[in-house]
Structure formats: C-alpha cells, structure tokens
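pasting for the record
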Amino acid sequence: MKNFKTIFILTLVLDIVQFIPLFLALSGGEMKAFLVADIGVDGLAESAAGMAVLDMMLFVFAFIALGYLLSIIYALRLTNIDSKKTASILLGIFHLTWALPDFINLISGSGGHPPIVLMIFSLIPIVGLFYVSQNGVAKSAE
C-alpha cells in the first residue's frame, strides 16, 4: 500500500469513525452522559461550570477534528509527489500528537484513554502516513 490516495482515504475513513463519538457528545444526549461518566470526576454532571468547560472543550475538539478531515480531503487533491510527501509527514505528525496522550495515559496507568481497539485503529493512519511519506507512489505500483 504505497499509494498516497489509498492511505489518505483510509486515514479519512478511520478519522471519521473515530470522531463520530466526539460529534455525538457535542450534540448532547447519551453519548455526552457516557463521556461525563467515563471522565470520572465526582460531581461533574451536577456542576454547571464544569459542564460549561466540558462543552467548550468538545466544541474546540470538534473544530480540530474538522480541520483534520478537511486537511486530508485537501491532500487527496494534491498532484505533485513532493507535495503529497510533505502532506503525509505533516498529517502523520498531527495524528501522532492527537493519539500520543492516550498512549501515555495507558502506559502510565492513569486511565483516561479510549478502548485499546480504538487506540490500535489510531495507529493505522499514523504508520500509513509516515510510510507513504518515505515510500509513497503517485499511482498504484503494487
């Protein structure tokens, strides 16, 4: 899988799947209640100020997620191989910095990380993006 387009599409699909809970939590309802319970801060659900901070955090993360998705969509439109390589390495760095806190929490045992399966899914775009940044081809040569 050295094709840039394949890796960008795979990254886009996995990012959409991973960001769905964020957008659902932003809209409220059961997903937000689950998130509040998963955070594990006593009294958060009853604190108006705490919920306001959580809402703002979700709002900001949703725009960051939207930026990721739009960046990948734009990268799909690139035609120059050097531009694709640059986009791949930058997207790989952004994805790594997004996923790294979860892995640090897992290793340190402090909790606050998503399920292991989602963490493994978050590694797929990172590895793929770094791989094609070095070995990618414009058209499938497989």
